[in-house]
Structure formats: C-alpha cells, structure tokens
Amino acid sequence: MESTFSWWFQSFHDSWILIFSSLIMIIFLTLFILKKRVYCNCEICQTYINSNWKIQFDNLCDWYTHLLQKSPTHTIHIHVLGNTITANPDNVEYMLKTRFDNFPKGKPFSAILGDFLGRGIFNVDGDLWRFQRKMTSLELSRVSVQKYAFEVVNHEIDRRLLPLLASVVGKEDGILDLQDVFRRFSFDCICRFSFGLDPKCLDLSLPITKFAAAFDLASQLSAERAMTASPLLWKMKRFFNIGSEKKLRQAIKIINMLAHEVIRQRRKFGFSEEKDLLSRFMGTINDEKYLRDIVISFLLAGRDTVASSLTSFFWLMANHPEVEAAILAEADRVIGQNVQVTSYKQLKELHYLRAAVYESMRLYPPIQFDSKFCLEDDVFPDGTFVKKGTRVTYHPYAMGRMEEIWGSDCLEFKPERWLKDGVVFFQENPFKYPVFQAGVRVCLGKEMALVELKSVALSLLRTFRIELAQPHPTPRFSPGLTATFRGGLPVLVQPRRAPS
C-alpha cells in the first residue's frame, strides 16, 4: 500500500512538473513570437516593411514619425497593438478638449502604470484626478509658492550645479555626463520644493542613490509594458514573478520605502503651511498608499521631464553655436554682463531664450507620446473611425516633424519661428504644440518648469563653454516614460571667460 501511494505521489509530482515546465515554455515562446510582431499589418505599414528600399531607424519614435508622415491624414492604426496614433492637430484638439470625456486615460492604461504610479494624478480619471488637480492648481498659483520654487532652483544652481561643473574644468578626465547631472539637479529641486526634503544628489561626490536607480528602472519597465502586444503577457510574467516583472516589483519596493520615509519625516517634524506641496495634501489625506502615489507622481513630473528637456537643449546648443551666441547677446543686453537673474520679470524679458527652449522641446519633447482610451465609438475630424476600447495616442515628437504644421524647414532648429517680428516671443496653438499637453489636462507646472529650464540654461551658458565629448549626429533614446539619451550626454566643460 505504501509503495503504491509513493508511486502515485511520484507520478503526480512528475506530471505537475511536466505541466508547469510546458506552461513556462509556452509563455516564453509566445513572448518571443509576439515580440517579433511589433509591426502593423495595415497597408501603409506593410508597404514600408516590404519595400525594396530599406530605411534604418535608431529610435522607435522616428519609425512612427515616418509612418505618420506617409499617411494622408497623419493618423495610423497599429493593429497588433490596438493603437490609433495621430499627429494631426485637429485630432489632438478633439481628444483633449472637444471630446475630452470620451478619451480618458482609461482602465487599461491605469493598469499598465498602476504598480508604479498607483492613483497619482497622471494615472487616474474622474474624482481622483479632479481632486489632485484642484489642490495642485490652487497651490501652484500662489505667489509665495512661486517665490519659494524660484529660491530653490537658484540655490541649487549657485551652491551645487555651478560648483560641480567648475570642479571638472581643466581636468584630463574631466568628462561629465550632463544628463546624469541634470537628473540629480531636478531630483534635488523637486524633493526640496514638493516635500521639504534635500537628498543632496548633486553634492560634489555625486552619491549614487539606489532610489534614483530604482526610479529609472521602474519607469523603463513600465513603459515596456505599454509596448507589449498583449496585456496578458506582462500580467502572466507578473503573476509568476519572472523576468522584467520581477525586476519591476523589486524596483517599486525600493521606491515605496523612500516614499513612505518622506511621509514619515513630514509627520514627525510637522507640516509646513507656506512651502512644500506634500504638507498641503497631508492636511486632507490620511491614506498612506494614496499619499505614496502622489509623492511618486510629483517626482515623475518634476525630475524626469525637466532633466530630459535640459539634456536635449544642451545637445542642441553644442551643435548650434549661433543660437548660443544669440542667447548670450540677449542676456548681456537685458540683464548686464555681471548680474544674475533675480526675478521672474527678468526671465520673461529674455524672449529669444524662451524661443530657444520651446524650439528645443518642439524637436525633442520630454514626453514623446501620450495615450488615452476611447470610451465609445467615435470619429476623428480627419475622418478616422475610432472603435470603443481603442488606445489612442497623440505624438508630439512626430508632430514637431510635420511640414504641414511647421513648414518645409520643420527639421531645422530655428528659435526665430517663435518670435513675432523677430523680437517678441509668441505662443503657438497648444494643439499644434502639445508638449505641455493641452485642453483640460494642460500641465499645471508649465511655468515653473520653464523658469527652471531658463534659469539653468542661462547660468550654465554664461559661465561655461560646454562641448560634446562624443559628437553624434542624432540622439538615440532608451525606452522609458520620458525621453532619455542612450549613453547619457558626455561633455567637456571650459570656462566661458578667462579669470580677471
């Protein structure tokens, strides 16, 4: 009897192992096959793929741009991803304003970023979104808050950013990854402004924090979820805790530790009524996990987008010395050669600098595309039918490269296109330039981000001469929720003016 039971148990055990192993093999085979099928089977995509002439693209966003340029309506549908993508300003306005309620972020998108962003403002709709937006809007519009943000940025520039770059001047191995520097800078700024916390990532020792690494990894892996042909694939990997999903879970665990520590410290030392944003949210929210989601959303908005914009801007400056010279000439004329920017008013008078920043983000937006989901069957202004449940994406990166929008010189870096009569900056139609989104969900931190971008740009350009250590014709991007230069931005730093 005992031997019979042992035999039965062993047979059952062996059968279970065989079934489980077969299941794992099927999963990975499916992942492999679908990974290869990241193309569209519509006519325009098949024409591109099967054509005799072959075009090599370093970036996925350039491939999408190519497809959108070829489409008569500048709208395409990637069948295997169930994704309708558009670079048509009329469609963008329809999604973000006219039919805003029919194109929410949607449950499928919220599921993709749910483990990382939770119920933060970038990942929710309805009452949760309205509450966070109202709270943030009220606080960011306060003069005291704007003044505090200006102080934080300038303190970080004067006490850390400029000394760090000065420390590598003249050194034989004085190559600095400017993208890494900007990430540290923006991380310090957003933590001090939003949480009253100073992580000191930009100290001269350039400490490596496991949190920053975990944040980068979580952003990358969450973005890869969005590019998976079927949500079932990443959900199965998450269920079995394998591969990229295992790495994502580990990264989010580290992120949660820091977020909860930030909240704990705020509670321990009391709230700041006049300064950091977290204190204001904590005055009305007791849910620890909800507060964690708000913390992560602030970090994503204030760190990655600013760092991405600054990286692209200085890459363009290194390749366009005539624009750099025009910025410096304007600064000398408006604020004098030896005077630092001391107010919003001075920054607003630098029209050419603002034009250069906008032009930089036209070509290299920090968020290259943004997706919504269609609630009910709809039709875009260009005649494209959008089926209920379809993912719909507008593509700022591609829109910046459309001749119909920007003219035959759309691929050129020309800040002058933003100047009326060549002198005064003017704002283009936001649906033509949705870098800060547009309509109901327009970015609340837009003006503060511009202050940060212009302050850093002006301070560094007036103090140093920055050259690329490894020149390359076009940037190559790594996967992520924001545009990231693959390999960073290695630069050589020299003083702008010889010491007197």
Automatic annotation (TrEMBL):
Protein name: Cytochrome
Family: Belongs to the cytochrome P450 family.
InterPro entries assigned to the protein according to its UniProt record, in alphabetical order: Cyt_P450, Cyt_P450_E_grp-I, Cyt_P450_sf
Top-level taxonomic group: Eukaryota
Residue stretches spanning the membrane: 15-34
Major location category of this protein: membrane
Reported cofactor(s): heme
Its membrane topology: Single-pass membrane protein
Subcellular location: Membrane
